Structure formats: C-alpha cells, structure tokens
Task: structure prediction
Amino acid sequence: MKKKTLKWIGIALVAFVAASLLSLYAYGRFAESARGPASHALDVQPAGTPLDRAISPLTSARPDEAGIVILADNLDAFAVRAATARAAGRSLDLQYYIWHADFTGNLIYHELLAAADRGVRVRLLLDDMNVHGSNSVLAALDSHPQIEVRLFNPTRAREGTIARGVELLLRFFSLNRRMHNKTWIADGRVAIVGGRNIGDEYFDAAADINFMDTDAAVIGPPVKQAEAIFDAYWNSASAIPLSALVDPGPGALDRVRASIDAGLGSPRALPYLQRLERSPRVRDLMQGRARMHWTADAAIVSDPPEKAEGATPQPDWMTPVLVEHISSVRRDLKLISPYFVPGTEGVNWFDGIRRRGVDVGILTNSLAANDVMAVHGGYAGYRIPLLERGISLYELKPHGSPGASLFGSSGASLHTKAYVLDGRRGFIGSFNLDPRSMNLNTEMGLLFENADAAAELDALYARKTGAAISYRVELVDGALRWHDDAAQPPKAWDREPEASLWRRGAARFIGWLPVESQL
Result:
C-alpha cells in the first residue's frame, strides 16, 4: 500500500512538472506573438505645453541640477497627480503596482481620459497581480485611440478564480516575480516616484485604514532617467498589451465615461476638487513658484525588467546600489520600511554599521498596523537581535491622527519606504528591506544629496517615530516591551499592543514556517 501511494505521488509530481513546463512554453510563445510595437518617451519642447512653460525656465536656469518636492501629505500627492494630468499637453507615462478602480482611482482615470481627449498620449503600465477584477475599466480605457494599457507579467486567464488560480500554480516561479515600481511622468517634465500606489487608502479616502506614505516630485535630469526606465519596462518581453488579453466590447468606453463622471459629480468628490483648486503647494508647483530642494546629486535608480525574468543580479541593481549607499553612513541612519524582514544577514549588516559608532533607528509597522500579517511574522523574530545590537526600533500604532482622513478613517498603516543618512543624503522609493524587494520584485526610487531635503525627511522620521504615532520598542531583562509614551499615564506592553489573540497567534505561526524568502 505504501509503495502504491508513493507511486501515485510520483506520477502526480511528474504530471505537475510536465504541466508547468508546458504552461511556461505555451505562455512564452503567446507573449512573443502578443508583444506590442516599441514606443519611447516624446521629446520635450521649450514652451509647447503648460508644464513646459512652467518648468522650462526653472531647469534652464539650473541645467545640471534636479528640483525635488517631497510629498508626505496624501491629499497633496493626489492633487499633484491630478494637476499635472490636467496640465499635460504631450504625454503621460504611468507605471504602478496597484491601481484600484475605486473612488480616487476613478477620479484620476477621469483626468487621463480628459488628457487623452485633448490629444495627450497616455501609456499605462500596471503589474497584473492586482488588476484582476478591473479589466472592464482598463479595457475600455485601452480602446481610446490615445491610451494604451500594458500589463506586466500577466496571466492569460482573465475571468474566473479557478482558471486564474490554476495558471498561478503552474507558473508559480515566474508569476511570483512582480513589478513593484511606481512612476508618474507628465510631459517629460515632472516625475513622481516613491511608495504610493493609486487608490483610496493612499489618498486619505478609505473609510477604515489609510496609509502613511511618501513620494517625491522631481524635475530636471532625473526625469530623463525615469523616462528611460519606463521605456525599458514598456518595451520589455514581460509587458503585454491588454488588447491581446481582453476585448472591451461595444460601448465600453462610453459606459466607463458615464460611471466616472457620476463619481466626479458626487458630494464625496468635492474635498478633492477643492484641494486640487486651492492647494497652494500644488498651485506653486504648476506655476513654477514651488519651493524646491535643488541639488546636482540626485538620480532615479531602478532594477531592470530582466530581474522579473530571473536574470543574474548585477551591481547596478537596486539592492547592491542601496547597500553600498547605506554602508557609507558615518554618523546616523534613520530608516522607514513598512515591510521589514532583515534576515540574519541583514541583522549582521546593521551590527557592522553600529560597531562603527553609527546610530541606527528603524520605523516599521506594529502587528496591529501591518496590512500583511505574514510579513510581520517574518519580522518579529529579529526584534530582539536588533535591539541587542543597540538599534533603536519603533512600530507604528494602528490609528491615525484625529482629523487626518477626510472620511473619518481612524486606522493607519505605514507605507513609506525611505531613509536618511548623516543628515544630508536620502532615498525615497518603492524598496522595502525584505527578501521580496531584494530578490523577487523589481523596485525603483530617488537617491539624493541635499541637506535641506534630508532635513525634511529627518523631520518626517522624527514625527512618525514620535510618541503620538509610534510605540518605542526596547528590551527589559531580555524581554520585549512596547512603550506608549503618549498615554496618560505612560503605558508599557509586554505583548504585541492592540493586536487580538488570533492575530498574535497567526503571526507567530507564520514566523515558524519556512517562507521568509517569499516575504
């Protein structure tokens, strides 16, 4: 009986491997035939569009420098995207890991449609992992003659969870690699990069939990770098035109227009439209009067699309670039990583930095604030080793500041990915310090050296690690303690604060599983 069981298990494994290989081969043939024609960023003009006229005088006066505006306010981040879409007259190149077809996602879709109606070329590249369920909206947009949508590393199965699930299983190793980049490029003049996706929770519009996120708007030479990165992904073998996967059907674009216009006319849209019209920061940016951090040392760095195809890592990929950059720190390192799984190698690396006399502080999510419980399970076991090495550790509380959300949300989760070195150098991007960002997903971000920009990022770190927003974690007699210094009287927890017994148990169980490489 035992031999018979083993025989059938062996047959099943062989059949699964054969089916996986056949699926990979069939997909490769499909992807090769489905690839769209190559296209590239359009040349800028001195005064061809409103953005040209606003930004060209600034960059002409400082031809070798980049201007940086840090966007830590969620509503400002929405308004800058909407405003640059409204001002665009030539091109919008947009690359995102997540774009929800929700309230704010549809408001920005409206701006893309309006731009396309004016003749603006819109290229929208989305990772496919989170697209399922919004094909009708995207396919309708793709039917517009000025809009093209491509999906990165998509499944061929578009409808039904069973078919999609089978393909995910058969192509697990290839589909496990995702495009995590976030880029918004308007007219080749402004690039917005960072950790923020498109959706209600990224713009203070979710009813339950909103993300604390940060990205940066940049003008000058880094915009060309962003365009080159976008073109590399857009023209890669992994980017498949949506038109090769779905058919929108007759009248789809008209139906989407009507639906989006209805949302735009709703009372809920009013705060966003008012912010778009009244925000002094956005108005100053669009009129070329924004206070920017100018520096000759700024660059947008990225993994290549080949990383998602399993190519051999190279020295100019994100992980080695950031490791080299951080390793040069001399005085203090302040790091924000919402999904933080350093591994033993990472703990030893931080230990080496500490042994040089560098102060190291890290902010991540508490269990109650983390929207990916599995990641917290992978992180939890490294807290004691980090604290034993003298690293300061803070965890975000699961509730936001009163009045922070327009729609009454009281929940908060950290989503900013950034660090600041020695009060003069910094990074804002999509990169988490975890195995998935290092080894599986493609990432990008902005590296810069500028004392004022670093000071702004430093102040952001100080605010987010303050007692009102985060717990201070420390070791007391070898055991973890979470200090809520804002409570009256101050309170110390000896277990994961504000997390249910079930959530604590589930995170601990996940921490025992051999899944760290996937977190």
Q: What stands out?
A: The radius of gyration is 23 Å. The domain at 297-518 is CATH 3.30.870.10 (Endonuclease; Chain A). The longest helix spans residues 2-34.
